[in-house]
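Case study B.
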Amino acid sequence: MIKIDSLCKNYGSFVALNHLNLSIAKGEFFGFVGPNGAGKTTTMRILSGLLRADGGEAFVDGIDVRKNSSQVKSKIGYMPDFFGVYDNLKAIEYMEFYASIYGITGNSARKLCMELMDLVNLAEKAEFYVDNLSRGMKQRLCLARSLVHNPEILILDEPASGLDPRARFEMKEVLGNLHEMGKTIIISSHILPELAQMCTTIGIIDHGSMVMKGSVEEIVSHLNSSNPLAIKVLDRKEEAVRILKENPLVRNISLEEKEIIVGFEGKEEEEAGLLASLVAQEIPVAAFNRQSGNLETVFMKVTGQKEVLEG
Amino acid sequence: MKRKWKINPIYGKELKVNVRTFKFALYVTIYNLILVGIALFSFEILFNVAWNNVVKYSSATAIYAILVAVEIAMIIFIVPANTAGCIAGEREKQTLEILLTTVMTPWQIILGKLQSSISMIMLLVLSSLPVISIVFTIGGIGLMDLLQFVIVVLVTAIYVGSMGVLASCLFRRTVQSTVLSYGFIVVACLVTVLIPIVAYTLSNMYYYNVMMAQGTAPNVGWSALPMLLNPVVTVVSMIFTQYAGIDIIQEALEEMGGMSFVGEHWFYISLAVQLGVSALLLWIAQKMLNPLRKIRYKNKKKRKKKSK
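Model:
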């Protein structure tokens, strides 16, 4: 559905996209993750026809975004990370205005707009002036606006930013419904646990390049293999450490109150061998497992950032 | 196949939003009150026997000239203020990006904005036609003259409106674009008049005072060509032709020594030139608005840096 090939974009001397490659299949719910300035918004803006790439190609449903941007725009619903308000316009009028852009007018426009507002749980606010809606409602209205021409792809740039937990939950529910309706969704966010719950695929971008891409489980398990082993022994801790040090795959050992944390780079068979060597010396091993990570720890590890993430 | 005519969505939206505001009703009222005040005052001056002793019916059409001048002056001042914020305002409200991700082309966005500004002005002008029609009670001005006036208003509104639209595309802030659009107005209304005056004065000074020559000074009629861009000159040409039956522009050109064809058809040529310039300004504006345009000057800078 979306194919990005060696996409480049510079802002002066700052490299925003550095030969970015990405492909997203139809019906995917793709989470775009990366630190600030990594190139998420730039990629989304290029796909939406708001920015010209300096190099490389981007295709939406086989259509070149640079050469046929008007065709691409009819397939895309874009929601930026801000919400622009027209003064003196009611929510339903705001929707009807965007419907008229796509040639939908009159009663059919009113019916469609009410359906979409119902989808985002805003039907009862139709006659309210947009200016008087809460931020969460505005965000949902903006989402409904991006659906007015029934696009196949939704590009959402941090749709839940600045929302309270309840509004975030409502937004998540609406997005889940849209995914069930078969829409291909690309979403960028800093709220990683939410992305992990919603997305079928995650792409981690850093310094304008795709660092890692796959399902949440794939990414976490891939990085888990480099996570340390946590071994809990009931007695004879010093002897256990001595045995562990004899293993050439052990890189480092640190002692915690109840566990021995072992930096170990080996496959599952080699892990089993290490456990066997402890058991052979009759060390009372109570627990032996890899420390597991979540998307957040993976993100920190991959991007090498130390910034505190919200969520 | 019958093609359904569709209103520009931006035009439709702006018209709906603007017309239902109290501000617009206030504008129409104040605008017409000013015109009515001027018309009644002029009427009083011209026809009050106690003041003039004689009533000169031939000078009654002066009311028309005054009203037309006031209307055009108002348009020249109001339209740029309206259009200067049309794109910059969308940028400030952060709605422009959303518009640009829809299927609307930059041309459609710009034309919708211009249309809405012009239609508001045309509403003002049409609402004032009964006031201008006061001259029909005396005679001297016909319906065709009034039609000509409406055409001039329309062209002037498009012309100064397109200056405002271009200024709005060039700057991110409404204040900056408003200043620039009034800068365009100053160039069009003042600088273009100064050019032939300076050229004529200098050529006469050089010819008669420096060269000590006699006879006719050299032809500097070409220097009047920039005045084709001046909407005030067009209106003056129209008023004098309608009111006094003389074309002062033609006479001025003859004095400067040439351009007889342009002088004879000054009114129509100037309207055509102003419409042409409007089209050019709007074309540049839509290019500026296109987010996928090539920014050549940046590349030039890069090349310069690389060569260093």
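Chain B has one domain: 22-290. The remaining cases will be described in the next quarterly update.
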